[in-house]
């Protein structure tokens, strides 16, 4: 079974050592991609972005049909290379591989941990002026906020996006809308969820809202929710306009304008 490791412990921070596999349509991937961009880690951590999805998971096809770094075509092929991968185990992204180790193993594939680690342990490689997404004195508070966002927004994405059960999808929609109504008064008082400085919690909320904005028919429901929560709507538009928050590829595949 693949074990997702943490930086600062099992994994050393080293420029050029790691390569990240992501999909621009996945909100869990986008939280890591946004952190990589706004923290200035593009040169430190190289990246492959999925070109689509097939029966073997996300596709990573370069000009010749293979990912140019690891010469794989799909997420499943990437996982099959791993000694500790078991048949039937998920082949999820994001997936961070160690290019310096034999067989280029997947060393981390938990997006929440990667977001925090890029924001904290990778600080020596941040660009000048990079935001402090998880200040040490705020981490306990932010951990609680992250959990609220996960329960009320992040975890509700799949029932809506896949719509395998209409009752579950409707319940998920109602839960998200209720949470947006809860945070709307807070955002009337500040630019971001906890004040005037952006935090990792903002990334976690934004990427799911961004994904839901591209899901039909929820997009129209979200527009209605934004009409009822004008401060959330302003917050979302503000983040969309910030450098590094939406790449050209993400805007294209999510049909954002």
TrEMBL record:
TM annotation in the entry: none
Domain GST C-terminal: 132-257
Gene Ontology CC annotations of this record: cytoplasm
GO molecular function ontology, one term from the record: glutathione transferase activity
InterPro entries xrefs: Glutathione-S-Trfase_C-like (IPR010987), Glutathione-S-Trfase_C_sf (IPR036282), GST_C (IPR004046), GST_Omega/GSH (IPR016639), Thioredoxin-like_sf (IPR036249)
PROSITE patterns: GST_CTER
Short name of any one Pfam family annotated for the protein: GST_C
Protein name: GST C-terminal domain-containing protein
Native organism: Winkia neuii
